[in-house]
Amino acid sequence: MFPTCPLFFLLNLSLAVSKIIVKDYRASFGPDLQNSNITAPLNVVGLSIPGDEYACELPKTTYNSSTAWIALVKRGGCSFVNKVYNMQMYGASAVIVADPFYNAPVIITLIEIIIAAFAIPGCFFILAMLSFWLRNRTLRLRDLAPDIIVSSLPTRNFVKSNLKPDDDIICPICLDDYADKDVLRVLPCNHEFHKVCIDPWLTTCKKYCPICKSDVCPPTETTALLPNNTNSGAGNIILSNPIASIIESETAPLITPQPPPTAPAEESIIDSTSVV
């Protein structure tokens, strides 16, 4: 295995420049470049490699150097693995594969196209599913009662001898009869249930009473002042409003219909006498 990690450069290199700093792209094969026997100064073999400047074939001549050196070859002609292998057999300590022109088109492998084609839609799909899950979770948490509120609701021990005629003796959830010393949870609507039955209902299913559907949580600033089904009460409040009263009076007819006038009793008597 070649003891260096090849670098792919996208800029032209000039041998007349003593120091060049360019961006590199790490190769997908070979081990990482470690602090081995490569020490400065390094000799750089340019594009005029004997035989094949693309390093697709092993040069016929040998290159003897007392110091480590880096082979600089052109991109194209064969795979990067072949270039690196040939330069390793030629005695190079590392290989720089550079584009021959600055604006030359870059070859993209099929795997890179597949990753780009599926990565962006996949990210959007994951974000959409995450947003959908968070929205459903938020809506579900709105219908659940917090544990601290459920635990603060009063409880009592059931005593059969203290029953009243209108007291329930069956838990509406599990449909079992209350037994002595059973712990009952009393909701704000005064309905009672087994503590072990109603607590999971309020914290994992709904925060409403299973019988009357009343909310067990205390009202907040976002709680509606009037329920939606109290139409008669809402109508009374609207009519009691002075502005509504004025509007109601303005819509009344100005002249109310009157019944036709009836003749006085005396005139009717006179008429009857004259006829006789």
From TrEMBL:
It is a single-pass membrane protein. This is RING-type E3 ubiquitin transferase. GO terms for molecular function: ubiquitin protein ligase activity; zinc ion binding. The lineage of its organism: Eukaryota, Fungi, Fungi incertae sedis, Zoopagomycota, Kickxellomycotina. Residues 254-276 are annotated as: Disordered. It is found in: Membrane. One of its GO terms (cellular component) is membrane. Residues 1-18 form the signal peptide. SMART domains: RING. Residues 171-213 form the RING-type domain. The chain crosses the membrane at residues 107-134. InterPro entries: E3_ligase_sorting_rcpt, PA_dom_sf, PA_domain, Znf_RING, Znf_RING/FYVE/PHD. It comes from Smittium culicis. Keywords: Membrane, Metal-binding, Receptor, Signal, Transmembrane, Transmembrane helix, Zinc, Zinc-finger. Its EC number is 2.3.2.27. It catalyses: S-ubiquitinyl-[E2 ubiquitin-conjugating enzyme]-L-cysteine + [acceptor protein]-L-lysine = [E2 ubiquitin-conjugating enzyme]-L-cysteine + N(6)-ubiquitinyl-[acceptor protein]-L-lysine.
